[in-house]
Specification:
Layout lengths: L1 E4 L12 H4 L4 E4 L2 H9 L5 E5 H6 L5 E9 L6 E5 L8 E5 L4 H14 L4 E5 L12 E5 L1 H5 L7 E4 H9 L3 E8 L5 H16 L2 H12 L3 H11 L1 E3 L2 H16 L7 H11 L4
Parallel strand pairs: 1-2, 1-3, 6-7, 6-8
Antiparallel strand pairs: 3-10, 4-10, 4-11, 5-8, 5-9
Length: about 270
Amino acid sequence: MRIGAVNYLNSKPLVQGLDELAPQARVWFDLPSRLADALSAGRLDVALVPSVEWLRQPAMPIVSDACVACCGPVLSVKLYFRVTPTAVRRLALDEGSRTSAALALILLEELAGVTPECASLPLGAGLHDTKADAVLLIGDRAIQSAEPECVETWDLGERWYHWTGLPFVFALWVARPDANRTELAEVLTAARDRGTANLAEIAAAEAPGLGISTELAVQYLQDNLHFALGDEELRGLRRFAELCGERGLAPRHAVRALDKLLVYGSTH
């Protein structure tokens, strides 16, 4: 079993004890965008992929009700503005992001009425490495970043929830069509359950390496995120699919795959 996981703090609760739960598995850690590519290329059996990548390949099955989602501020996906949002002409997008990049474009168009030119922000680069009007940062760097020179900062989870009233799903477990779904579901759900039962322990272990306080790490995992893919999360994902389809960011038929999941009430 070849499992692809993300090495961000937000995904640590999903991989807690995977080595014990699936001793026969090999786990690779990489950026979300690279995991999606590896899964498509057949180098992985299952991966925690950006939700927009599943929308682009909805024939690949979702194999667990474990996910990374938020219902309000997410803290780790932020859009920093050097000009007012309505004046943005150039947007720098974190190279590790795909779902958050699509979300940023949607919210800028819907809430600020702009469709900016996009540029890629290389991995490891930060706010001071680009002169773009707005800069998207994701993951641990966004948690750590504070930029008093910015005109405004959007937490994209918060903006999405206030606009739609729905949760936002950033990542979910997706497998190759020929994978053993039952086995994967059992292992991945058990890992999530173990992780969510030990959030304080995970936060204490990870916070020093990120340069943040244990209290902030606990708050992030307990209050900003949740890790279960239920009907409300699927409805949020469906709305995201509609908006992506309207803009050519994902195929329109992804909505039908989500309708089936909502009808049957199952991710398996």
